[in-house]
TrEMBL record, chain A:
Ranges where the record places region Disordered: 1-20
UniProt keyword Nucleotide-binding, yes or no: no
Keywords: Membrane, Transmembrane, Transmembrane helix
Positions with biased composition (Low complexity): 9-20
Bilayer-crossing regions: 44-65, 135-159, 179-199, 206-227, 257-278
Natural source organism: Planotetraspora silvatica
Name by which UniProt lists this protein: ABC transporter permease
Keyword Kinase: no
Automatic annotation (TrEMBL), chain B:
Keyword Coiled coil appears in the UniProt entry: no
Gene3D superfamilies recorded: P-loop containing nucleotide triphosphate hydrolases
Organism: Planotetraspora silvatica
Source organism phylogeny: Bacteria, Bacillati, Actinomycetota, Actinomycetes, Streptosporangiales
Residue ranges of every copy of the ABC transporter domain listed in the record: 2-227
PROSITE patterns membership: ABC_TRANSPORTER_2
Protein name from the UniProt record: Multidrug ABC transporter ATP-binding protein
Pfam families: ABC_tran
Cross-referenced InterPro entries: AAA+_ATPase, ABC_transporter-like_ATP-bd, P-loop_NTPase
Family: Belongs to the ABC transporter superfamily.
Keywords: ATP-binding, Nucleotide-binding, Transport
Record flagged with keyword Transport: yes
Length: 282, 311
C-alpha cells in the first residue's frame, strides 16, 4: 500500500505526438469476448458438464441397450428401434441445457454483475458485442459438441456392435446426423446467448430457454390434433431434432428443412436481442 | 472537453436530468456536485452512451462518445462501483477491456501498478474490498490513457490514504492538461480538489461556478457592521471592489470586500463608534447545502439568486 501514494506522480502522460493510436475493430471485440469467456471458471465447469452429459449419457444408454439385449430382458419401446446413432445422441437433450444456460450466462451474467457497463463503455456501438459473444460461444459449443458426439458414437458403436443397433460412420446418414447434432447444440448456445441479451436476466433467460426447448412440446398436445400436426414440426425442439434424427417420417421435417427452421428461430432470437441492445439503456 | 447542451433524461413522468447546459474544460478538475438523486450518475451514464438522452445532447472531445474510433482513449470512466464480473480476476478484466482497443499488455501492467493492485491482480475481483474495487475501476478508467477522465463518487469506500491518493491523482491528471470530471455529494471533498464546480439539484443546473466565486457569493467575506453613523461609514469604506448594502434607517451595514480588521481600523481612524463587527463566515458546505436544499424545496430556483439571500 505504501507504493500507492508515491506512484501517482508517474501517471504516464505521453505527449500528443507519442500517443498510441488505438482503435476498436470487430476482430478485437471478438478477441476480447474470447478472453472473457475463458477467464471465468463457470465456463469451464458448465462446458465440462455439458460434455459429460453428452458423452456419459450416450454411453450409459448404449450400455443399457447392450445389457438388455444380452440378458434377453424386455425391451421398452424407447429402446426397441434404437440405433447406435440414437443411443449416442441420447445425451443431447441434457447437454443442450448446459450449453444453453452457459449461453444465457455469457450475456445476462454481464447485466446481473454490472460488467455490461464496462463492456459497453469499451464498445459503445454495442452490436459488435452481441455478434462477438454469439460467434465466440456458438463456435466453441459447436466444436465441443461435434467432437463430443463423434467420440460418443465411436465408443457407443463399439459397445453395441454385433446387435441390431450396430452402425458405422460409413452407414447412410450417420455422419450427417452427428454433424447435425453438433450444429444443433452450437445453435442452442447462440439462442441462449441471444435470450440472455434479450431478457437481461439469468433466471428469465434460463426459464424461456427451458420452456422453448422442453416444455412447449408437451403443451402442444393440448391443442386440437389438426393444429398439432401443422405446428408441431416447426417448434424449436422438433425442428432441431429433425436436424440430427436418422429417420424421418411424414410428421417431421427433413434434416435440411429442420435446420432452416431452427436457424430461423436462432435468427429471431438474435434479432430480438439486437433490437433490445441497440434501443434501450444499458 | 465535455459539452452538454439542453441535456434531458426522463423516466416516465420523472425527470432525472432537466435541460442541463455545461462545459467541462481541460486542465482543471471540475467537480460535479449535488445531493443524492440529483441526476449526477444519469448525466455521466449519458456522457458515455449507456443511457440515451430523452432530448438534448452531450459530446465529448467534439463527438458523441459512441462515434469515436477508440472511446477508451477519449474518456476513461469510473461509473457506479464494480462494473465488473466478480468471477474474473482484476488482470483478466483489464485485459479483456484492453483487447477491444488493441491496448498492449504492457499498458495493463502499468495501470495495475499505478493503482497499487499488483498483489491482488490475479485474484477474483469479487473478493475485493470496496476500496480495491474502486482502484480497479480507476485502473480501467486510465487504461486507454484518456484525454478525459470521469469518475463517479471515486472516494466512496476509500480509506484516508486512498482518498489522498485520489486527490493527488486528480490534480496530477488535470496538471497534464486532461479534462477531469468528478462527481460527489460532499462539498468538503470537492473543495479540496476542484477548481470549477457544476452544481445540480433535481436534475437542474443550480450553479456553474468556481470555488472562489462560490465562497464569495456565499458571503464568505461579508462583514456585518453596526454603527451610529452608517452614512458616514459608507463614505469612508467606499472603494473599488467594496460592496456595501444596508437598509435606510437601519444601523446595520453589510460590507463585502474588506476584512473586519480593516473596517475596524478605518472606523477608529475616523472616530466612528462601532457596536458590532461580525465576519459572516459561511463554509462551502453550508453554501452548498443551502443551495441544494432550496433547489429541492422550490424545485430549482436559479442558483445565484439563492446564494445572495444567504449572505
Amino acid at each position: 500500500m505504501s507504493t500507492i501514494t508515491s506512484t501517482h506522480t508517474s501517471a504516464p502522460a505521453p505527449s500528443r505526438s507519442t500517443r498510441p493510436s488505438y482503435r476498436v475493430t470487430g476482430l478485437r471485440v471478438l478477441r476480447s469476448e474470447w478472453a472473457k469467456l475463458w477467464s471465468l471458471r463457470s465456463t469451464w465447469i458448465t462446458l465440462g458438464l455439458g460434455l459429460l452429459f453428452l458423452v456419459g449419457i450416450g454411453l450409459i444408454a448404449a450400455a443399457q441397450y447392450k445389457s438388455r439385449i444380452t440378458s434377453g430382458h424386455h425391451m421398452d419401446p424407447d429402446f426397441a428401434g434404437a440405433t447406435a446413432v440414437s443411443l449416442s445422441l441420447f445425451g443431447t437433450r441434457f447437454a443442450q441445457l448446459a450449453l444453453g444456460v452457459l449461453g444465457v450466462l455469457v450475456t445476462a451474467g454481464e447485466y446481473s454483475t454490472g460488467m455490461i457497463r464496462s463492456t459497453l463503455a469499451a464498445v459503445p456501438r454495442r452490436l459488435p458485442v452481441l455478434w462477438s459473444k454469439s460467434a465466440v460461444f456458438g463456435l466453441v459449443a459447436l466444436v465441443v459438441s461435434t467432437a463430443g458426439v463423434f467420440a460418443t458414437f465411436l465408443f457407443a458403436g463399439g459397445i453395441v456392435s454385433g446387435t441390431n443397433a450396430a452402425m458405422t460412420l460409413s452407414d447412410t446418414g450417420v455422419v450427417r446426423s452427428l454433424l447435425g447434432a453438433g450444429l444443433y447444440l452450437g445453435l442452442v448456445a447462440v439462442i441462449g446467448t441471444a435470450l440472455g441479451a434479450l431478457l437481461r436476466s439469468v433466471a428469465g433467460g434460463i426459464s424461456v430457454l427451458v420452456g422453448a426447448l422442453m416444455l412447449i412440446p408437451g403443451l402442444i398436445s393440448l391443442l386440437p390434433s389438426a393444429w398439432q400436426d401443422n405446428i408441431s414440426p416447426y417448434l424449436p425442439s422438433n425442428a432441431g431434432e429433425s436436424m440430427f434424427a436418422l429417420h424421418h417420417d411424414a410428421t417431421t421435417l427433413s434434416p435440411t428443412a429442420g435446420m432452416l427452421v431452427f436457424l430461423a428461430w436462432t435468427v429471431l432470437a438474435l434479432a430480438g436481442a439486437a433490437w433490445r441492445l441497440a434501443r434501450t439503456d444499458a | 472537453m465535455i459539452e452538454a447542451h439542453q441535456l434531458t433524461k426522463r423516466y416516465g413522468d420523472k425527470t432525472a436530468v432537466d435541460q442541463l447546459d455545461f462545459t467541462v474544460r481541460p486542465g482543471t478538475v471540475t467537480g460535479f456536485l449535488g445531493p443524492n438523486g440529483a441526476g449526477k450518475s444519469t448525466t455521466m451514464r449519458m456522457i458515455v452512451g449507456l443511457d440515451a438522452p430523452t432530448s438534448g445532447s452531450v459530446i465529448v472531445n467534439g463527438r458523441r462518445y459512441a462515434q469515436h474510433r477508440a472511446p477508451l482513449q477519449e474518456v476513461g470512466a469510473l461509473l457506479e462501483a464494480k462494473s465488473i464480473h466478480p468471477g474474473r480476476s482484476a488482470f483478466d478484466h483489464l485485459m479483456a477491456q484492453a483487447y477491444t482497443h488493441g491496448i498492449p499488455r504492457r499498458r495493463v501492467e502499468e495501470v495495475v501498478e499505478l493503482t497499487g493492485l499488483q498483489s491482488v491482480a490475479k485474484k477474483r475481483a469479487g473478493s475485493f474490498s470496496l476500496g480495491m474495487g474502486q482502484r480497479l475501476g480507476i485502473a480501467a478508467a486510465l487504461l486507454g490513457d484518456p484525454q478525459t477522465v470521469m469518475l463517479d463518487e471515486p472516494v466512496n469506500g476509500l480509506d484516508p490514504e486512498g482518498v489522498l491518493w485520489i486527490r493527488n491523482l486528480l490534480t496530477g491528471l488535470a496538471a497534464d492538461g486532461r479534462t477531469v470530471f468528478v462527481s460527489s455529494h460532499l462539498m468538503s471533498e470537492m473543495a479540496l480538489v476542484a477548481d470549477h464546480l457544476i452544481i445540480v439539484g433535481r436534475g437542474r443546473l443550480l450553479a456553474d461556478t468556481t470555488v472562489q466565486d462560490l465562497v464569495r457569493q456565499a458571503g464568505g467575506d461579508t462583514v456585518k457592521v453596526a454603527t451610529s453613523d452608517p452614512a458616514r461609514l459608507r463614505e469612508i469604506l467606499a472603494k473599488p471592489g467594496v460592496e456595501i448594502t444596508g437598509q435606510a434607517g437601519s444601523e446595520e451595514l453589510l460590507v463585502t470586500g474588506l476584512s473586519s480588521r480593516s473596517i475596524g481600523v478605518y472606523a477608529a481612524e475616523h472616530g466612528i463608534p462601532l457596536f458590532e463587527l461580525t465576519p459572516m463566515t459561511i463554509s462551502l458546505e453550508e453554501a452548498f447545502m443551502e443551495l441544494t436544499r432550496d433547489a429541492v424545496e422550490y424545485h430549482g430556483t436559479t442558483g445565484i439568486q439563492t446564494l445572495r439571500s444567504v449572505a
